[in-house]
Design a protein that fits this description.
The chain has a domain of 41 residues. Helices cover 15% and strands 21% of the residues. The radius of gyration is 20 Å and the shape is elongated. It is an alpha+beta fold.
């Protein structure tokens, strides 16, 4: 169940909304106006043991063709 970030087109209120279904109609909680979905950032935490198994994620690669 993803959390999306929205901005109201009427009152400019920014808020987060947990969506249980893609078919959910989202309205502004303050004025019930139409909203626009915003691009949100996210983060991923990788444990030390996981990075040792994934060398491409451990750091920058050296160019071997130069």
């Amino acid at each position: 169940m993803p959390i999306f970030e929205y901005n109201c087109e009427d009152c400019s209120y920014k808020f987060n909304q947990l969506l249980i279904s893609r078919d959910t109609q989202v309205k502004c909680p303050l004025c019930q106006g139409d909203v626009k979905k915003l691009m949100s950032t996210f983060s991923v935490r990788v444990s030390h043991n996981a990075t040792s198994n994934l060398p491409e994620m451990a750091g920058p690669k050296m160019c071997t063709n130069c």
